[in-house]
Design a protein that fits this description.
By secondary structure, the chain is mostly helical. It has a domain at 32-82. 79% of the residues lie in helices and 0% in strands. It contains five helices and no strands. It has helices spanning 5-27, 31-41, 43-54, 59-70, 74-80. Helix 1 (5-27) crosses helix 2 (31-41) and helix 2 (31-41) crosses helix 3 (43-54). The two termini are 21 Å apart. The mean pLDDT is 81.
Length: 82
């Protein structure tokens, strides 16, 4: 089975970066302020938040919709992040 390109990218180091960002936000004294700072300083983070907002503010809906749009099994990504 061929690994989709997005999973290959995640396997090449981006997965660790995602995990580090998630941990940084979780451990912040004010997670919302940390998110706002990331959004204002990182265009890719802003794109992610725009996508979430397009799905009514529900990150899971946005994630599953984007995975479907890209033809990727969302469970594969979730399993990689465990």
């Amino acid at each position: 089975m061929q690994i989709p390109a997005i999973l290959q990218q995640l396997q090449s180091g981006q997965l660790n970066q995602i995990k580090q960002t998630m941990n940084m936000i979780r451990s912040a004294g004010n997670p919302q302020a940390m998110m706002n700072q990331l959004i204002s300083s990182n265009p890719r983070m802003k794109q992610a938040m725009d996508l979430i907002n397009q799905h009514g503010g529900d990150p899971m809906k946005a994630f599953y919709a984007e995975a479907e749009r890209r033809g990727v099994d969302p469970q594969q990504i979730i399993d990689m992040m465990k």
